[in-house]
Batch of 2 targets.
Target 1
Amino acid sequence: MALSPDQISDLRRSGLTDDTITRMHCEGVRPKEIPIKSATSAYAIPYFRLDGTLNCFSRLKFVPEVVDAQGRKMKYWQPPDSSPHLYLAPLLGWQNVARHSTTELVITEGEKKAAAACQHGLTTAGIGGVWCWRSTLDNGDTLTLPMLDEFQWPNRSVLICPDSDAWHEGKEMQILAGFFALAKDLQQRRASVQFVMLPDIHGAKAGLDDWLLVPGHDVEQSWPKLERLTLDDPRFSTLAAWWQKWKEKQATHEAIKQNGADELVVTEVAGHYTVRSPKHSVSITFERLTDARDSVYAEVAIVIGATEILSGCKLGLQSDSGQGKLAGSLKAVAVSVPWKILLQRACSLVLKHHRQGEPIITLIPSASATVPFLLNPIIYQGHQTLIYAPGGSCKSYLALFFALVACHGGCHAGVAGLKVSVLYLDWELNAETLGGRLKALQAGHPEFSRHTPFYRRCELPLHQEAHTIAAFVAEHHVKLVIVDSAAMACGAELSSPEAAITLQRALRKINCASLVLAHTSKSVVEGQERTAFGTVFFRELARNVWELSKADEEHPVTLALSHTKHNFSSKHPPLGFRLTFSPEQVRVDAEDLANVPALQKKLATPSRIRNLLEDGRLRTAKGISDDLDIPLSTVKSALSRGKGHKWQQVGEDYHDPQWTVLRSK
């Protein structure tokens, strides 16, 4: 409802411009919707989040003011028992203000005053009343302005600016006490707090907005000249003594309350939080925590005893109304449980743990300077390995073989594995198909017959199921996760860096070693290195990267695994594998790539030269270059490095010598 002329005039009396009034989103309230019967006109002043969006809380301003049943004048109204809120006029970038403690912050009483000050260039937040920065919950707990936790306070200059009548004799407890307690709270957060003393104007009370309207009063010159008092000023001695007694009273009340309080126990496994109330035999589980719209949401499940009474309920951890609504529903199930209090405390605990993240530690030397292998030399413990190849290259067969090697432990086909639990995440096949391959591999390798990996058929992108998978990995002590394949696991455009980054974050959340299978195009421009399809970050975020190549012959299938990226060691020579298929079994053995012409090019240049010279024929560098189709400069460099210990020159023509291999004596 549009503002009436009287309501607009009321806002303008604080010096607010039409543009500021528009940006404040104030709205008139229909008379029948005004909660105070004696009020005839009111407008709503909405509150905002740090990002400038509305936060669903507002206060009403009566025009004119009304008198309640007790004869007290009322200018403003807000719902009873509502949580405290900080008014942030939508004229500034409050996220930057909150983030940077070098920005001086003014705090005053009232939304219009705060908006007027912001309009004049003072970074000013407002509170609805001198005590409207804290409230008491149903259980007696004190809730301090949650928004204060969003600001960086250490070394921030804070100026508290009450109305001028706060400094009138006898007003200390009526006006200044609430502000002084707030000042001490901010001081405990390591802010530097001072009070600004506004003078009366023409012998009458003045607020910050009134002071700014006086001709000649400006932010640059007049504002700094106003008297400022530190909290240890002698004029605050009475308030300081009161505050000490008030804090002692609060501490005593808290100690009495905690003596018989229900101690909540919070545990976390792979991002899943469980809060238990032993007193009420209640367990509240928070899963799939997500940050959205400047808040944190979770899927909540609640169990009483051994009975689940709620699951899959989305709840905002900072939503007082959402928690209250859920508590009201739960009362129908168990009326004796103080659901509102329990949910508030549980949400607060989970939010605190969620935002803490990984602790900051003192880095100490490890037992070893090298990163240990889980599957030597392919997969490191706790890190990601990427294997990429065109479709039809037997990636899944080889990955399943590696899974069996890790499940069994020991050395097989040239790779050595620790004995660990493995989880195979499959987006491309299904349990029946992969189970058939498992049967064939176990038939070809009887030693694997009692060792199988865990398996999960996947549909959603990995990051959407990372919490569930991480919980399984932690519970079953899984040390290796195989992702087949990256394209489906990302669930996003593969050319976007965000696809690889999102996948990496999900793998970090799962928190164990991983083998990610990726596709690549079958067609590659001659001379170019084949890479995983999509953004370069798939390669860069993995710690170990291998290219899988397949020879053209199908019986048996010969594969070459070439090391293309290595973070923790030197480059490993290519690995060869021979897959022998028969109707009932598949066997994987090591293969010498020197015996596979189609894959010899995957060998390092020195290995290829030595294999060529093994036939006993003398060759010049040019002849070696022609036979192996390797650039002459590369051949000459390799010959020079291996001269005298791998091969030697023959003859006296030093301009174009011939070469032969050195054989061990």
Target 2
Amino acid sequence: MKKATTLLTALLLTTTWVFAQTSTQTEKPITQGETYSDSLASVSVHAYSVALDSAQYVFGFVNQQTVDVVVTIFNPEGDKVAEFDGPARGKESFQFDSRAAGEYRIEITPFEKKEGRYSITLKLVEAVAEDPAGRVNQLMTEYSGDDVPGAAVLVMENGEVTFQESYGMANLTYDIPMQEKTRHNIGSTSKHFLTFGLLLLQEQGQLSLDDDVRDYIPELPEFDHPVTLRNIVTHTSGYREFLNTIAMTGRNPSTDLSQEQIINIVQRQPELQNVPGAEWNYNNTGYALATEVIERVTDESFPEWMRKNVFEPIGMMHTVVRHSPAQIVENRSVGYEPAKSGGYKEVTDLGGAMGAGGIHSTMDDLAKWIQNLLEPKVGTQEMITAMTTPDTLNNGHSSGYGLGLFIQEYKGLTHYHHGGADLAHRSMLMIFPEIGGAVVTQSNFSNFNGSIPNKIADLFFEDHLKTEPEQAEEDTTGESEEFAYDVEQFDALTGRYELSVMPGFVLTFSRDGERIYTQATNQPEINLTATSDSTFSLVGVNAAITFHRNEDGSADSLTLHQNGHHTAKRISWEPAPEELANYTGRYFSDEIETVYTVALEDSSLMLQHYQMEEDLELSPGDVDSFSAGFPIADVAFVRDEEGNITGFNASNGRTRGVFFEKMEE
């Protein structure tokens, strides 16, 4: 995955050991500071043991040199307590706490029976920190050091900063560490800054959120239903999402994109994807349009207007809006992702992000921003209330999203928050208004662990949070206690199930001996643990499955419990190769001026585009419908009255129903 460390530990001379390759291997002891190198065969299980006292924190990593590995941790009783399966190359990090003294086993297996070389390093073993600050430092171990992308953490209590620390490197090329003055790309966390600006203009009488967006951008198409400013900032407009749309064209998302070009994307859209206000569908297009509205109303550039009317009045003197990936921003952190060959790869920012993202800020400035949200000196309390009140959809249901912020309850406390994910940077800002608390994390590494902000909140706000029943053993993966289950019963549940909320996204359930597992479209396999004869938890993922069993033990549908409850229906269509041949050909979309080829290769239907590194396999769903991956997750073929295939509609979640017409051969 990632990692290194700057926690104060003794520097040990690193020793490298090389073992002979065997398909099965006895446990080999490993100690802090040692590195072992070896090769995995497709059926290998390599095991390492470490003797631990109780309440010790362990951090290490496997350098995946030429093979993707899965790391599994077992306690002295032989129970699995954690599993790590991240990037295919580079560092696969692991960390866990010992709850009992004894020998812990670290198993390394190849992902999907691949083979190749790896090395394992046990970097740190120390007592579990007892104070929140020390524990946060342990959580941040993998982002600490002078050779890894870094991160920053800020905690506020009663409106004041009580913890702030920077880790790792802001720039690996020039050996610049993360510091208090580092400007972080906060990505989509920028959205509520824009809505704050809109509300300032509304307070001044220069606009209303209930105005038609065409009052300000008249060149936008007039659809059957008006789209308001409120619709575009609550993700209910029905417009295509521009980043997902340009991804279908094969265009690199980091290339610069002007607001005029984003308007052109909407102009080419034949109809709205939904009636405005009818459904919530996360959408950066609306925020790009809102940026244009602010510029036209104020007759100033968005970065300049925000500087003079928002940032400087609040005292945020080190915060800027980056209008283009080419703009120089002093003291900014550079983004990184794992490189296929190991190490890290430098990554630029998204094009066209201004408004939807684009803000670069320091941790000190973000603290000032939070203080103003808690007790506004700039703006009004009515504005903050509007931002933090969930929008109501046309059917009367709450969307859970206000004006640029998610509003939820966390362990008994109201909190509003927004994350950010540019191509590499990761951001989270969480505010708990009832206690004047906040947690902010920033990182310039694409694989930053998104569960860390909640863990930090648990550490610092423990006295204010409702406790939850403690899970058995090390709670590193969120595993549930295993139910005594006859895995042969799972055969009746195996098969493919398509999510109703996201056509084309298919969950495939399988059994391999005693192992039961699932695999989502274009994602790795994930093991399942039975919690009853119809409910299963996903190992290492905060999610669960409930099958709706029939009397014979089979199921026609299921519910995925992850960020809500989502139904999926069993897929029964299994087309023969000769049927698949009917779908082959070249298809052209006039809307996005793009051509895709559908080809039959080795009994599989493949979607091809000259810009894609790899072809996408089309997996059958309902009749004439197939699932793929990104940038096209769902392909629904269209037939004429005679039954001839005339084209297909392509979707990828935020952009839906882009029509591709079949070209004459």
